[in-house]
Each structure stands twice: as structure tokens, then as C-alpha cells.
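Ticket #4471: structure output looks truncated?

Reporter: J.K.
Steps to reproduce: submitted the chain below (103 residues) through the standard prediction queue, then opened the result file.
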Amino acid sequence: MRGQAFSSDSEERWESIVAAAKEIGIEIRPELTVQLDRDLTSPELGYPVMQQLLSAGKKFTALVAFNDPSAIGAIRALQDIGPESSGRCLRDWIRRHQGGGVQ
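Returned output as attached by the reporter:
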């Protein structure tokens, strides 16, 4: 989740995220990168962009939010898809990355 273009530290934060991801071998896929554009300081900042990612149907295993309000909004969007769906996503991820020991 990239910060708003008008935010003074958006580019610096994004460059730090990209550098850290590269250092530990994580690919940042452009088709899963969303740009925040609203001037809000509430969770409503991250909610619609998470909905956008979820509705696109593309799989992802993690989200880096621009700030706390955007993270809270993203979490709320995940919660709204229901505990079964979000729980299934977590179980699938664990199976893929931890050897399949979770039922």
C-alpha cells in the first residue's frame, strides 16, 4: 500500500519498503500494489483499497500498510469477508509455508 502522493514522506517510505523486501528476497508485484489517494486519517483510508485487492481475486500472502489507519481499514475489510474466508486464507498460507501441519 503506497502512501498518498501529496504526503511528504510517501516516496521515502515506499523506497524503504522496496529496499527491505529486496534485501530479504521478497518480490513486490506491481499488480498487487495499490496507491492511496484519499486525504483521510481514519481506517476508511485502507478499507476500500483492501476491498479492491480482494475483489481482483489475486492471491497474496502479506500486506504492508502505509500507516496505522490504513492498516486498521485493511484489517476491517478482511474481517468483513468473514472468519471462515479469512481463516481459510491463513490456513492455506501456513500449509504452503510450514509443511502442512495445520488442519
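Triage note (M.O.): checked the attachment and the full C-alpha cell line is present. The chain has one domain: 10-98.
Status: closed, working as intended.
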